[in-house]
Write a structure and sequence with these properties.
By secondary structure, the chain is α+β, with helices and mostly antiparallel strands. It has one domain. The protein contains three helices and five strands, in the order ββαβββαα. The chain has a three-stranded antiparallel sheet with strand order 2-1-3. A two-stranded antiparallel sheet has the order 4-5. The radius of gyration is 15 Å and the shape is flat. The termini are far apart.
């Protein structure tokens, strides 16, 4: 039996927008992973805990849907989207990542 994987199909991607005084400022926008790849986005983070995620399932096969999963186990344990948080039976509370992606 294959191990169960954490699969999140939405994440935040880093974008830029024009500032009022000129120049650009970064901001984070929630997108589906598939759309982010189509838009050629390169910086990703979890939309709930703001922790680092890794991009998987983007090999281009027709039946494969791209997704992200937490890089750090601690993020998965305390993020509402995390597999380990969902499986926990100790009544833990969700919290942001201790190492958020800025």
């Amino acid at each position: 039996m294959a191990a169960e994987r954490e699969k999140m199909y939405e994440c935040e991607v880093k974008r830029r927008r024009v500032k009022e005084g000129g120049g650009y400022e970064p901001f984070w926008k929630v997108k589906s992973v598939a759309t982010a790849l189509t838009d050629s986005d390169t910086e990703f983070r979890c939309k709930d805990c703001f922790g680092a995620v890794k991009l998987l399932g983007r090999n281009g096969k027709v039946t494969t849907v791209p997704y992200v999963e937490h890089k750090l186990t601690a993020d998965s344990e305390f993020c509402v989207s995390g597999l380990l948080f969902k499986k926990a039976t100790d009544g833990r509370a969700a919290k942001p990542s201790e190492h958020p992606v800025e």
